[in-house]
């Protein structure tokens, strides 16, 4: 076949004008196999087979024509028809693969679009009501895992049977007197610090005065809220405490007003050595001194560990509310647990969204133009130096929300709790002042969790009348109910929340105390492409470690929120 293709091509190049028939005749005539050139013995046979030869010649001629045609095609198109079939098969496979890839991409795109349309803040909205999908309840929904809560135990209680070397009242270095300023919880911290400072300087502590708060306008005395006898007796081996200013000091008003009797230059978070070097000499000289202001005037990691342990002893053991307050709080807890036919766990929610808190935060919140204008006027009146001309407030508000420094709105709290797995039937006790925006602002939370009540809804008017004369007493009821709840949820920082979380840690890390990651919440709730499933996963995973579990302390840590190292011991 190759020889035939080669000879044919040579013949075509040598005589392009000759026909195939003539070329075959010439070739046959010159061939040694022609009848004329055969021996006589074979001639007859050649004649006899002439007809067969004619047939073979025609077949050979046809085969030659076909091969010549194929040879010419091959010279014009340097591939074979077999190759074309293989290429076609290969291309079909590539097309099939591309088609499958496109289909797979379309499926993913459709799924992504559905997720994006189902954003957390777009949970089926019906007016001011939010309907979010139900989430499966987790095993640790109402308490921390047992295995993570058994390694620490409280150890700041009073030492029993230990000899006390505390000097008599008239043998100490002198007397100190403080004004406990602010609300109930700030006053509580000031009292704990006052006992610690008295111990540092070996001074006698005069029972602190609860200074009238400028916001609450409350004139509660120490004995109106705390059990004085228990307070003095429990600390009798640590610090000398007297109920009143000594009788030999006749001009008591001087202690409140005279600069000569006041130490005013105490820095915030001062170390123990500062009191020894700067305050103690003046106490020895004057015998009785007033310390003010006294808000956060003692540090944490710059004082001896036994002093921090003493502060915990005051906070968790010595400071007890009056029996009537404790009894009323126990009734509220019992009513919360028995609101349904069966005993049920309940959640305490510290909702910090009062007008003062909203204004002080300088954050931007959802509202009408009228509401925003009124809030701007309120901020200008209350905080003129921070407000200035108001031009910088929008950028400040965005930055604070991004950093998680804004209070969570009731609607945001509702979405967060639903994402964590708390069902519609959850019993919630709300510890809060008057919420800014009233019932309209509370509607999303109340509609998503209808079993939401306050102490006013759990009691009769007559039951609370005895506590209304002191606003601090009402705050004490909220404090105790939150302390004894199954789950505590804070929505913004402050002394109340950190004292509750620290106290619950001290009582046992099994009690769940949720501290929201407001930075994550702000980012997720503000992302129009965040799907509900992704939001749920983020909320659950992130808050697994923000539920009051044991945490190692760090420099400048807050002992009131995390009493682990100085006040708790390895179990």
From TrEMBL:
<comment type="pathway">
    <text>Glycan metabolism.</text>
</comment>
<keyword id="KW-0472">Membrane</keyword>
<dbReference type="Pfam" id="PF10250">
    <property type="entry name" value="O-FucT"/>
</dbReference>
<keyword id="KW-0325">Glycoprotein</keyword>
<keyword id="KW-0119">Carbohydrate metabolism</keyword>
<comment type="similarity">
    <text>Belongs to the glycosyltransferase GT106 family.</text>
</comment>
<keyword id="KW-1133">Transmembrane helix</keyword>
<keyword id="KW-0812">Transmembrane</keyword>
<feature type="compositionally biased region" description="Low complexity">
    <location>
        <begin position="27"/>
        <end position="38"/>
    </location>
</feature>
<dbReference type="InterPro" id="IPR024709">
    <property type="entry name" value="FucosylTrfase_pln"/>
</dbReference>
<dbReference type="InterPro" id="IPR019378">
    <property type="entry name" value="GDP-Fuc_O-FucTrfase"/>
</dbReference>
<feature type="compositionally biased region" description="Low complexity">
    <location>
        <begin position="7"/>
        <end position="19"/>
    </location>
</feature>
<feature type="transmembrane region" description="Helical">
    <location>
        <begin position="94"/>
        <end position="114"/>
    </location>
</feature>
<dbReference type="GO" id="GO:0016757">
    <property type="term" value="F:glycosyltransferase activity"/>
</dbReference>
<dbReference type="GO" id="GO:0006004">
    <property type="term" value="P:fucose metabolic process"/>
</dbReference>
<keyword id="KW-0808">Transferase</keyword>
<dbReference type="GO" id="GO:0016020">
    <property type="term" value="C:membrane"/>
</dbReference>
<protein>
    <recommendedName>
        <fullName>O-fucosyltransferase family protein</fullName>
    </recommendedName>
</protein>
<keyword id="KW-0328">Glycosyltransferase</keyword>
<feature type="region of interest" description="Disordered">
    <location>
        <begin position="1"/>
        <end position="38"/>
    </location>
</feature>
<dbReference type="InterPro" id="IPR052272">
    <property type="entry name" value="GT106_glycosyltransferase"/>
</dbReference>
<keyword id="KW-0294">Fucose metabolism</keyword>
């Amino acid at each position: 076949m190759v020889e035939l293709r080669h000879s044919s091509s040579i013949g075509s190049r040598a005589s392009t004008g000759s026909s195939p028939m003539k070329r075959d005749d010439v070739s046959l005539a010159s061939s040694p196999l022609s009848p004329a050139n055969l021996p006589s013995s074979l001639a007859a046979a050649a004649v006899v087979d002439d007809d067969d030869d004619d047939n073979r010649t025609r077949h050979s001629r046809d085969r030659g024509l076909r091969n010549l045609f194929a040879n010419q095609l091959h010279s014009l198109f340097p591939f074979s028809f077999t190759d074309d079939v293989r290429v076609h098969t290969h291309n079909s496979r590539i097309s099939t693969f591309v088609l499958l890839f496109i289909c797979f991409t379309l499926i993913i795109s459709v799924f992504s679009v559905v997720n994006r349309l189902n954003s957390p803040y777009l949970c089926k909205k019906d007016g001011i009501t939010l309907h979010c999908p139900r989430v499966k309840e987790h095993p640790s929904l109402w308490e921390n895992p047992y295995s993570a809560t058994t390694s620490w135990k409280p150890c700041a209680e009073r030492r029993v049977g230990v000899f006390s070397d505390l000097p008599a009242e008239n043998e100490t270095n002198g007397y100190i007197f403080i004004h406990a300023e602010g609300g109930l919880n700030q006053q509580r911290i000031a009292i704990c610090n006052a006992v610690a400072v008295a111990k540092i300087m070996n001074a006698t502590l005069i029972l602190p005065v609860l200074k009238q708060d400028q916001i609450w306008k409350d004139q509660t005395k120490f004995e109106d809220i705390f059990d004085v006898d228990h307070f003095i007796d429990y600390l009798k081996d640590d610090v000398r405490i007297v109920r009143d200013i000594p009788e030999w000091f006749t001009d008591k008003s001087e202690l409140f007003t005279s600069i000569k009797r006041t130490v005013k230059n105490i820095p915030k978070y001062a170390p123990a050595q500062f009191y020894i070097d700067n305050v103690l000499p003046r106490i020895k000289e004057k015998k009785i001194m007033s310390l003010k202001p006294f808000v956060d005037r003692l540090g944490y990691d710059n004082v001896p560990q036994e002093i921090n342990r003493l502060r915990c002893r005051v906070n968790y053991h010595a400071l007890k509310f009056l029996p009537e307050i404790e009894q009323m709080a126990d009734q509220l807890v019992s009513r919360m647990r028995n609101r349904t036919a069966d005993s049920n766990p309940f959640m305490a929610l510290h909702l910090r969204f009062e007008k003062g808190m909203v204004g002080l935060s300088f954050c931007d919140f959802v509202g009408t133009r009228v509401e925003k204008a009124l809030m701007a006027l309120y901020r200008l009146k209350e905080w003129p130096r921070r407000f200035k001309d108001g031009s910088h407030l929008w950028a400040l508000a965005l930055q604070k929300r991004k950093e998680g420094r804004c209070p969570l709105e009731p609607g945001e709290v509702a979405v967060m709790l639903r994402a964590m797995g708390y069902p519609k039937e959850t019993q919630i006790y709300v510890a809060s002042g008057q919420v800014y925006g009233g019932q309209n602002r509370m509607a999303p939370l109340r509609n998503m969790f209808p079993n939401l009540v306050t102490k006013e809804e759990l009691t009769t008017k007559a039951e609370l009348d005895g506590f209304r004369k002191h606003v601090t007493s009402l705050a004490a009821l909220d404090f105790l109910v939150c302390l004894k709840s199954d789950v505590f949820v804070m929505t913004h920082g402050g002394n109340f929340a950190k004292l509750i979380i620290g106290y619950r840690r001290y009582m046992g890390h099994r009690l769940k105390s949720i501290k929201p990651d407001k930075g994550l919440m702000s980012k997720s709730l503000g992302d129009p492409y965040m799907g509900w499933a992704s939001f749920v996963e983020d909320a659950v995973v992130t808050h697994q470690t923000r539920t009051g579990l044991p945490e190692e302390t760090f420099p400048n840590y807050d002992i009131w929120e995390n009493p682990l190292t100085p006040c708790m011991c390895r179990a």
